Recover the amino acids of this structure.
């Protein structure tokens, strides 16, 4: 039976729906990360996960092809830059090995504990690209059943990726460090200055704020997480975050404008490590 | 029982799968199509403002299940946008071939902008950025391209007489 073209009282329907939406928003704010809404989100994630996994695997070549077509020029430039960087890293590796040995010896002498010793790393596979055009989040195939909890740091071999913001039984959602709402307390490796690295969105470097005007920040300087000594209780200290791209002092500004390029390849994540706290 | 009670849920489930699993893999300029917005607008084109608003609200809640922004934000945006499209469509008194496509594209772009503005008012300041200049056109164009198919699907799902205000040829 065909519906009539004009349903009765459409304005009342709209008013009711707006009220319902506002109520849901209010409940979400009041639940502060828990409650029925988070349960619903976790349930939705678990229910749809098998289909999403299958679709993601099937469409990955198509997606790569599309990205290749629209971003061919930048891909070529990126390949050249990566080759040059790889050559440089080979030299760094030799120096790094020597420093590792020295560091271990000094720690044992001073009986300092490894900042990461209290964590149990869980390897996870990235199963979903960002769903929203505004959020930089990815979904992992590990969840609460594997010991993953909200606020667990996530990293790759290269450096920090982000932190867990939502978990369900079999899945977890990670907010990447380049997400607009992400902030990481950081320390510059050479100058030991501290600041806050804020995400600026997909394809953009991180902006570091609260860097003292008198600090001498060098382009290429490595940046690591600052950890508890900067008030952050999420990321342990010493995890590589990025490398300085620009450091500017502008007239009238109270701090330096510093941008850093993330060390981890955030747009092509496959496997990551979640630092979980053993229960 | 009305046919749409049985037809609409599977259509919504399919839309969620497309929205969360298929289209995020098919990005243009790092931007994915917003299938749930297209579905909400298509419901309004097919069945008028009230039904469009209801489908828009449902699509919004489903979208919010997979986002970290406040739950209900997408519903708060999609319901009025779909309602507005439905009101616009019911005031068309002559057959215009391309109008539903243009309306869908404009509504999809408007929904993205409204989402960023309302989200910023709720404390999600990062939603408003220069990235909107890329996201809005891509979502609008792809939304317009998908709208003819989406409108046909929603006409079937909502069991609407195809001789609506605007006829798709």
């Amino acid at each position: 039976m065909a519906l009539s073209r004009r349903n009765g009282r459409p304005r009342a329907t709209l008013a009711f729906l707006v009220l319902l939406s506002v109520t849901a928003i209010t409940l979400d704010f009041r639940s502060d990360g828990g409650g029925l809404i988070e349960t619903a989100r976790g349930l939705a994630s678990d229910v749809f996960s098998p289909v999403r996994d299958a679709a993601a695997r099937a469409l990955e070549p198509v997606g790569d092809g599309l990205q290749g077509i629209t971003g061919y020029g930048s891909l070529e430039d990126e390949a050249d830059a990566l080759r040059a960087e790889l050559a440089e890293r080979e030299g760094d590796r030799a120096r790094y090995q020597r420093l590792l040995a020295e560091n271990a010896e000094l720690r044992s002498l001073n009986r300092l504990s490894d900042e990461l010793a209290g964590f149990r790393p869980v390897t996870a596979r990235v199963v979903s690209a960002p769903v929203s055009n505004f959020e930089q989040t990815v979904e992992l195939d590990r969840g609460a059943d594997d010991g993953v909890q909200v606020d667990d740091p996530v990293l790759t071999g290269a450096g920090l990726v982000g932190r867990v913001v939502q978990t369900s039984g079999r899945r977890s959602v990670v907010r990447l460090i380049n997400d607009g709402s992400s902030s990481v307390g950081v320390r510059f490796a050479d100058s030991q200055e501290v600041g806050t690295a804020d995400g600026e969105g997909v394809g953009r470097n991180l902006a570091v704020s609260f860097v003292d005007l008198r600090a001498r920040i060098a382009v290429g300087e490595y940046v690591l997480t600052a950890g508890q000594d900067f008030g952050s209780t999420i990321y342990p200290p010493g995890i590589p975050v990025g490398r300085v791209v620009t450091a500017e002092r502008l007239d009238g500004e109270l701090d330096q404008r510093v941008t850093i390029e993330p060390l981890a390849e955030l747009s092509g994540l496959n496997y990551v490590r979640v630092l979980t706290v053993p229960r | 029982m009305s046919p749409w009670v049985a037809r609409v849920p599977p259509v919504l489930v399919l839309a969620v799968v497309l929205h969360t699993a298929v289209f995020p893999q098919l990005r243009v300029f790092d931007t994915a199509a917003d299938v749930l917005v297209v579905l909400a607008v298509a419901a309004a084109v097919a069945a008028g403002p009230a039904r469009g608003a209801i489908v828009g609200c449902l699509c919004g809640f489903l979208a919010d299940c997979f986002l970290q922004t406040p739950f209900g934000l997408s519903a708060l945006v999609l319901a009025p946008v779909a309602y507005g499209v439905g009101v616009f469509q019911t005031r068309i008194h002559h057959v215009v071939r391309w109008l539903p496509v243009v309306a869908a594209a404009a509504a999809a772009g408007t929904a993205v902008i409204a989402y960023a503005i309302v989200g910023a008012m709720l404390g999600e300041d990062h939603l408003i950025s220069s990235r909107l200049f890329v996201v809005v056109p891509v979502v609008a164009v792809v939304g317009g391209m998908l709208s003819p198919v989406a409108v046909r699907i929603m006409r079937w799902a909502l069991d609407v007489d195809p001789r609506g205000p605007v006829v798709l040829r």
About this structure: Chain B touches chain A through 67 residues (CB under 8 Å). The CA atoms of residues 97 and 168 of chain B lie 6 Å apart. Confidence is low (pLDDT under 50) at residues 165-169 of chain B. The helical segments of chain B are 3-22, 35-47, 49-64, 73-90, 99-121, 132-157.
